[in-house]
Structure formats: structure tokens, C-alpha cells
Automatic annotation (TrEMBL):
This enzyme's EC code(s): 1.1.1.267
Start and end residues of each 1-deoxy-D-xylulose 5-phosphate reductoisomerase C-terminal domain: 154-259
Family under the similarity heading: Belongs to the DXR family.
Protein name per UniProt: 1-deoxy-D-xylulose 5-phosphate reductoisomerase
Keyword flag Metal-binding: yes
Residues that coordinate or bind Mn(2+): D158, E160, E251
Gene: ispC
Amino acid sequence: MSQRKRVALLGASGSIGCSTLDVIRENPESFVLFAVTAHKNLQVLAGIISEFRPRIAVVSDNNREAMDAEAFEALRRVADEAGTDIIQGADALDQLVSMAEVDVVVAGIVGAAGLASVFAAARHGKRILLANKEALVMSGAVLMDTVLRHGATLLPIDSEHNAIFQCLPDRLQQAVACKSALQHLPDAAAADTLWDGISRVHLTASGGPFRGRSRDSLSKVTPEEACKHPNWQMGQKISIDSASLMNKGLELIEACWLFDLRPKQINVVIHPESIIHSMVEFIDGSVLAQLGAPDMKTPIASALGWPRRIGSRSARLDLFALNGLHFEAPDLVAFPCLRLAGEAFEAGGAAPAVLNAANEVAVQAFIDGQIGFLDISKVIQASLDSCIIHEASTLEAIVEADARSRVCAEELVRRFS
Ligand SMILES: NC(=O)C1=CN([C@@H]2O[C@H](COP(=O)(O)OP(=O)(O)OC[C@H]3O[C@@H](n4cnc5c(N)ncnc54)[C@H](OP(=O)(O)O)[C@@H]3O)[C@@H](O)[C@H]2O)C=CC1
Ligand SMILES: CC(=O)[C@@H](O)[C@H](O)COP(=O)(O)O
Ligand SMILES: [Mn+2]
């Protein structure tokens, strides 16, 4: 019988999807692509089906009227030929990750749309490779509890969090990935000192395409300019989040939940080269860092193989070609989103879900030309101020807070536009 791990790749048509496919392509003896999902991009999905012949493909968008009928027919033909079952609708995502045949779930859907499937995977005790940071930001405590109760394994593939994870001693890696092992460690956050002699974490940020610019100079920047990330090729939403530093804000919250930290234990440092992907500092003054060329195939391969190492065709680091490594403090006046995220985490309850939903609405409105770049943080701030922040101790409460925040943020967008 095959010992290959069967992978369900959520968001296969996106940037994380593309990097994951390449790692699987390089390791056919260890992994088989069991299932893939896409939302609107049927052409890319057809190409993936034709190459990998997965057992199942989900098209999560079920708005038949808006769908390109010809592209759907072409997809069906390719799927028939490959022996792939096509299932349509968002509910199919949850069914898919719950299947007994699935060993590994790569959560590469963007935004809150990925929340339910991450939970379904956790409830079924799967090994989850988490790229979808929004799911964790929205639901931190509830998701961590679900992972713990159902014996799931949660491995970060966001490059910074994967770097921090790689810098941890083996025993802590086990505790972070399999939350059940955490119970045997002291409550580090409460004790104000971190596990195993760790004193703090340095979370690196590129600074995005607008690093060094004043707030006033950003009033007229376009979505195209905001998407020109200096180092990474990524989807549109995360690229704009990087430009506003909201990506780092989301990552601050992500790190707090993954590694059981408080924001004050995390030093956000701008590192424009994106070569050091984050660092862990110990009480004896040692600082361990994970370095690599900015290429998501590296963290994805590291998590797919964990605790082993597997190969990938990621770009290699040429130390002699580097023009120095630089570090500076973030400018929280020009980029208030990072501050807003830290405050939302400290406020607790549904505040991070409100922050995330408002950001998603504001970023989409910026892409659609309804509001300016500087309005993104204004919509988020006003949403946090005007939304009543409830407790969020269940998935249902989080989903409700997300929905309310969207209504509130959409109203604010109308006022700003
Ligand atoms: N790209 C990167 O290097 C990194 C990304 N991440 C995180 O990974 C996630 C994915 O990012 P990225 O790959 O860049 O994004 P992309 O925009 O490139 O891809 C997003 C994927 O999600 C699918 N999708 C979009 N909307 C929905 C929906 N409503 N329901 C179901 N599926 C949907 C898309 O389908 P379709 O295209 O078919 O419409 C696509 O497959 C984000 O949370 C991001 O923050 C984290 C670290 C690095
Ligand atoms: C590749 C990755 O993990 C992204 O989150 C990336 O780090 C974004 O870069 P910024 O540091 O500019 O937000
Ligand atoms: Mn990242």
C-alpha cells in the first residue's frame, strides 16, 4: 500500500497553491495530490487537474450565472479525462477536508473565506499547513482549542512563522505543532518569560513598496503601486496588506496565537531585503535566525516534510550577492495598521475578527477604486470604534462578528467614497 501522504490543497489556483504544487511535483515519492480547490480561476484549475489527476476538485464559487460556461465545460472535459470528480459550492470545502483519505490540508485560501475549512480540518484531526493567517487572526483561541481537542497538527507556512518555528528546539516544535504537548509546558505568557530560555521573538517585515514614505505622500497611490512588493510574488490582497503593514499586524496576532506570546514579547523589525525571515532571541543573548531567498517553496517544503527535510526547487541564497542586511523600526505614523492590529489583539474577544473583516472590505474597496490607500486604516479604526466588540468564544460568534463588521465597514466605505 502507498505510504505517500495525500494532500488536499485549498486555494490551488493562487500563489500559495502554485508554490505548493511545485514542492509536490519535486517529491512524488512522498506526496500525492488527492484534492484541489479553486474559486473562480477555472483555467488554472483545469491545468492542475490535467497534470496531477487529483481524485477530487472543488469549485467553491457556485454562482453559475457569473461563471464562464465555456470554461466550465472545458474543465469538465479535462476532469473526465483525468478521472477527477468536480464538486461545486463552498460547503464542499468542509466535506473535502473531512474525508478519511486526506492526510494533509494546505490552507491556501485568502481571507475569511478560508475559516470554515480550517476549522473542519482541525475538527477532523488533520495535519494543517496554515497560510491562511486571517482564519487564525479571527478565531485564535477557539481554533487553538479545536486543534488541541481533536489532536490536529498545525504547522505555519507563513514565512516568518515558519522561520520562528524552525528556530525552536525540537520539543517546542512538537508543542507548537501538536497543541496537546503544550499542556506539559508552564503557562509561558502568564509567567512573563517564554519557554526554554526564549526571551523574545523578532518578527521581520520588508516594509513593503512604500517603505520610507511619509503618510501624506501616500494619499494618491494606486492599487498597482501597492501590489509591487519589493521581494515577494504574492496574491493581490496580501500584497496590499504588506504595503499598509496590516500584513505585519495580522502576523503579530498570528505569532501570538501560534507561539503563545504577548505582543510585547514580539519585536517587529523592518528588514528590507527579506532574507532573514524572523529570529528567536534567548536569555543568554543568542539570536537564532532562519535565512533564505524570498521563495515560499522553502517554508512549504519545510512544513510538508516536518520533522524531516525534503527537497524543493526554491531559489538559493547567494551570500556574496547580498548587498548587506539592514534593519530599522517600523513607522507607525505612516502605517497605523500595525498598531491597530496590536490593539485589537489586546482588546481580545471579537476585536481581531472585526479588524480583519474591516480590512478585507477596505482593501477590496481600495482595489475597486472606491477609497484611497489612507482610507484603509481609517475604515478599520472607525469599525473598531463603532462595532460593539463581543466575546467570541464560539465559531458562530466569530462568524457573526465578521458579518457585522462587514456591514459596518461597507457603510464607512460609502461615507469615505
Ligand atoms: N502568497 C504568499 O506568498 C503568501 C500568502 N500567505 C497567505 O496565504 C493565503 C493565500 O494567499 P495567496 O496565495 O497570495 O492569494 P491568491 O489571491 O494568490 O490566491 C487565493 C486563493 O484563494 C481562492 N479564493 C479566493 N476567494 C475565495 C473564496 N471566496 N472561497 C474559496 N476560495 C477562494 C482563490 O481562488 P481563484 O483564484 O480560483 O478565484 C485562490 O485559489 C492568504 O491568507 C495570504 O495571507 C501567507 C504567506 C505568504
Ligand atoms: C511571504 C510572506 O510570508 C509574506 O507574508 C511576506 O512576508 C510579506 O512581506 P512583508 O514583510 O512585506 O509583509
Ligand atoms: Mn509572512
